[in-house]
Write a structure and sequence with these properties.
Largest sheet: 2 strands, parallel
Radius of gyration: 15 Å
Strand content: 5-15%
């Protein structure tokens, strides 16, 4: 529509399913996407730190991301 600007970036907080309609529509218009996995990993990292007092190892994040995206 005239007068409306296209968003430059979208942040989807849903991580299951990974490819929501919101993300699919954004891809059609070449909009930068931050998926729900970003929020999911931030929550996991915060919970891990609260329970263990340590930072979540990056390897754990990578392993989880691979498990979630390669099914």
């Amino acid at each position: 529509e005239q007068g409306k600007e296209k968003p430059q970036i979208i942040y989807d907080i849903v991580y299951n399913p990974l490819q929501t309609r919101f993300i699919q529509d954004a891809k059609k218009y070449n909009i930068t996407i931050i998926s729900g996995l970003s929020m999911f990993f931030q929550q996991a990292s915060a919970q891990f730190r609260l329970w263990t007092g340590k930072e979540l190892p990056k390897e754990a994040e990578w392993a989880l991301q691979n498990a979630l995206t390669n099914n």
